[in-house]
Amino acid sequence: MKTITTLVTIVLLASIAATAFAADAKTGCVDVDRILNKVEAGVQVKAKLAELAKQAQEEINKMQESLKKLDKADKQYQTKEAELQAFYSTKESDIHLVDADLTKKLYNNLLLVVGEYARKNSYVYISQKNDNVLFCANDVTDEVIGLYNATYKK
After folding, report:
1. Cβ contacts of 64 within 8 Å, gap of 6 or more
2. How many domains does the chain have?
3. Separation CA 86–CA 63 (nearest Å)
4. Second label for 69, Cα 20 to 30 Å away, from 5, 17, 59, 95?
5. The domain that contains 143 carries what CATH number?
6. How far apart are CA 74 and CA 54, in angstroms?
7. pLDDT digits over 38-86, tens only?
8. Domain residues for 28?
């Protein structure tokens, strides 16, 4: 009986200690989409992608104008139309690849910044705010944006 009482006491003390630790544990959340869109590097990425899209659209417009001058029954029209479609697909794919590459770099840098922020401010856990998170009492998004910009200033 004494062994059971001792075991129950140990379990209760461990549970109280875990609860006390959890109560003192500092947690927070960040809105990753907002960060990627608000940090200076993210704004630069969006501007670069917009410029690439604009250049591609200008070239597509030129190709469409030259296509309009041809007779649809002409074999050259069909060739130019196929070239236009291939060019469009290639540019669209290129822009998506650049977007994925640059966004991955931003995200990897973000992970480093969030880790640094958590260590400096004694956080045990920082989660990603998303549709599954109904409430976050300690949103540190703005602080992380500031730290990201300070860390990755160009």
Report:
1. 84
2. 1
3. 12
4. 95
5. 3.30.910.20
6. 30
7. 999 999 999 999 999 999 999 999 999 998 888 888 889 899 999 999 9
8. 2-151
For 78, other C-beta atoms within 10 Å of its C-beta total 12
d(CA 33, CA 31): 6
In whole angstroms, what is the distance from residue 111 CA to residue 108 CA? 5
Q: pLDDT tens across 3-44, in order? A: 554 444 454 444 444 444 555 688 999 999 999 999 999 999
**Tokens coding 77:** 């029209």
